[in-house]
């Protein structure tokens, strides 16, 4: 039963999912070209119509299981109806360092006059110089830029709502994203959480302008227990300050900082490991024995005590207060394992303990999960996956039942 009045709260990875924030891919994906895709963090140029169909099917699988699907574009539009949000949105769209003073002023005054829907579109899909509505301006910046250069950058990675914000208990942490191509996502999520009626009253965890953390690295192993991947995206400083913030707010008692290889294939902790049940994970076989963790706990007087490193699986089990964290053995040969890891085989989204959504293409990983008693709801992802993200990356749970 969908209850739109229930306040957001997430205290595990696997509690029955009630509401989730997704972003249906839009015009921002049409900005990708072979010249900019690397910088914009896509590995190829997605076929946008098909990506939308795949995404619609993903949302339908979730709705079919009683999950309320909130779409980021709608939420942003609603937030921008508030005049204060609109003003902040204009401010977030205009980068004076890119446009120079004169052009920045004209773009600002133009955007101030547009409606919430148009501003939302500019914030997500960006704007090229040739799309600027006013006729030939005399600005040097305008004259010297190629008409197809971006006056406002597009945000194609909004699709991965996991990374830009994460709920920890009843608080939301808005990420401080590492890659330049994603930094402005912080402002978009900030607007949604500050001004959308559904979220307006939510308390914040962490400060969005602190050291880098990304939601793909944040895993709620159990109520009060967080694992934070530290690698290409989340920095050690980010993990430490998130730990301090959740300890200070009393929403976690243990944080595991988990070093992961700094590479594109393992950009976030959830590319190598996701939870499929309250005591079980699916994990990239090569990570199984090598993953380590530092354990952070509050000292009680405002400090943080760090121990370890110890093997991740035992540190996690201890922090969770269970005998053993089971790894569903995908038993794959190294080549298949590497192929399916790259295609987000380990990046599942749990809808309940033992029920996960996974990309259908990772046939072998899914088969092993099913053999271990996990129900896998397969979705197509040939186009969605071109940005290197699976079902967990593409979803930000805002409400899960407690288990
Ligand atoms: N949680 C995740 N694994 N997210 C995947 C994000 C992919 C995105 N293209 C990026 O590079 O940022």
Short description:
InterPro entries: Arg_deiminase (IPR003876). 32% of the residues lie in helices and 22% in strands.
Note down, in words, how this protein is organized.
This protein is α/β, with parallel strands linked by helices. The chain has two domains: 17-71 and 156-400, L-arginine/glycine Amidinotransferase, Chain A (5-stranded Propeller); 75-152, Pentein, CATH 1.10.3930.10. Helices cover 32% and strands 22% of the residues. The protein contains 13 helices and 19 strands. It has helices at residues 48-64, 72-80, 83-93, 96-113, 116-125, 140-144, 161-164, 185-195, 236-248, 285-288, 312-320, 334-342, 363-371; strands at residues 17-22, 68-71, 127-128, 150-152, 165-168, 171-174, 203-205, 218-222, 225-230, 254-259, 273-277, 280-283, 292-298, 304-311, 326-328, 349-352, 355-359, 375-379, 396-400. β6, α8 (185-195) and β7 (203-205) form a beta-alpha-beta unit. α2 (72-80) packs across α8 and α3 (83-93) packs antiparallel against α8 (185-195). Arginine is lined by residues 41, 157, 160, 162-163, 182, 216, 267-268, 270-271, 387-389, 393.
For the termini, the CA-CA separation is 17 Å
Number of helices: 13
Strand order of the largest sheet: 8-9-10-13-14
Poorly predicted spans: none
In terms of structural class, how would the helical and strand content be classed?
A: alpha/beta
Q: Look at the structure and name the CATH superfamily of the largest domain.
A: L-arginine/glycine Amidinotransferase, Chain A
The CATH class of the largest domain: Alpha Beta
Overall domain count: 2
Shape: globular
Give the fraction of residues assigned to helices: 25-40%
Which cofactors or ions or other ligands sit in this model? arginine
Total number of beta strands: 19
CATH architecture of the largest domain: 5-stranded Propeller
CATH topology of the largest domain: L-arginine/glycine Amidinotransferase, Chain A
How much of the sequence lies in strands comes to 15-25%
**Main beta sheet strand tally, sense and closure:** 5 strands, mixed
Radius of gyration: 21 Å
| Arithmetic mean of pLDDT | 94
């Amino acid at each position: 039963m969908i209850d739109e009045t229930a306040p957001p709260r997430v205290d595990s990875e696997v509690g029955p999912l009630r509401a989730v924030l997704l972003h249906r891919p839009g015009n921002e994906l049409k900005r990708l070209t072979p010249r900019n895709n690397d910088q914009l963090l896509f590995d190829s140029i997605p076929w946008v119509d098909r990506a939308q169909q795949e995404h619609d099917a993903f949302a339908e699988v979730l709705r079919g299981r009683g999950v309320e699907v909130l779409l980021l574009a709608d939420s942003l539009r609603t937030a921008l109806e508030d005049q204060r949000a609109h003003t902040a949105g204009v401010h977030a769209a205009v980068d004076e360092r890119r446009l120079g003073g004169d052009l920045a002023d004209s773009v600002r005054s133009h955007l101030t006059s547009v409606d919430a829907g148009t501003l939302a579109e500019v914030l997500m899909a960006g704007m090229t110089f040739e799309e600027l509505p006013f006729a030939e301006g005399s600005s040097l910046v305008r004259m010297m830029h190629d008409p197809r250069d971006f006056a406002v950058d597009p945000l194609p990675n909004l699709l991965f709502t996991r990374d830009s914000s994460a709920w920890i208990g009843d608080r939301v942490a808005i990420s401080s994203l590492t890659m330049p191509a994603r930094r402005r996502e912080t402002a978009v999520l900030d607007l949604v959480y500050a001004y959308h009626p559904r979220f307006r009253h939510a308390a914040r965890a962490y400060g969005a302008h602190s050291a880098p953390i990304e939601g793909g690295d944040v895993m709620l192993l159990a109520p009060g227990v967080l694992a934070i991947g530290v690698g290409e995206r989340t920095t050690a400083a980010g993990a430490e300050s998130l730990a301090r913030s959740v300890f200070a707010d009393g929403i976690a008692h243990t944080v595991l900082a988990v070093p992961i290889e700094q590479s594109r294939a393992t950009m976030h902790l959830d590319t190598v490991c996701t939870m499929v049940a309250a005591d079980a994970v699916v994990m990239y076989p090569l990570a199984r024995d090598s993953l380590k963790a530092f354990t952070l706990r509050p000292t009680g007087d405002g400090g943080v005590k760090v121990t370890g490193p110890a093997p991740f699986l035992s540190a996690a089990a201890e922090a969770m207060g269970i005998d053993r964290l089971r790894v569903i053995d995908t038993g794959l040969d190294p080549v298949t394992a590497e192929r399916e890891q790259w295609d987000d085989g380990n990046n599942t989204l749990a809808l309940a303990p033992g029920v996960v959504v996974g990309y259908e293409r990772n046939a072998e990983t899914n088969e092993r999960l099913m053999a271990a008693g996990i129900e896998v709801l397969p979705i197509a992802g040939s186009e969605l996956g071109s940005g290197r993200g699976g079902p967990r990356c593409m979803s930000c749970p805002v409400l899960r039942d407690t288990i």
